Predict the structure.
Amino acid sequence: MSKYDQDMEPRGANHVALTPLSFLQRTASVYPDRAAIRYIGTEQSWSETFQRCCRLADALRRRGVEKNDTVAVLCPNTPAAVELSFAVPMAGAVLNMINTRLDAEMVGFILDHGEASMLWLTRVWPRWVKELCALRQ
């Protein structure tokens, strides 16, 4: 315990937990025009990132994702992966980010074990998805 914590219980005035979602919201408010994502010659501000994450969270809910559902994500390190990292918890769901270097059999195991109600993947994996579907039959 540090000297600053002595005789001071956490209260609303002196302690606010910083979660990924509160971080995103606060950063979009404090630094709206600063770059949040730079990717292959494009730049996206914190304000844009926050707005896109909110829209994506809403889209997930409209697609049937409910509180405590698991959303598995299979995509490379792209802006979409960053946005999903915030949007899935915003929708009240649990994020299961899957390593893109795993083979279809291991991903199938992870999907079963994690009880994913939705799999989000990018167009990069069409051949790979066919292999995964063949394993699951």
Summary: The domain at 20-136 is CATH 3.40.50.980 (Rossmann fold). The mean pLDDT is 88. DSSP finds five helices and five strands in the chain. The first helix runs from residue 20 to 30.
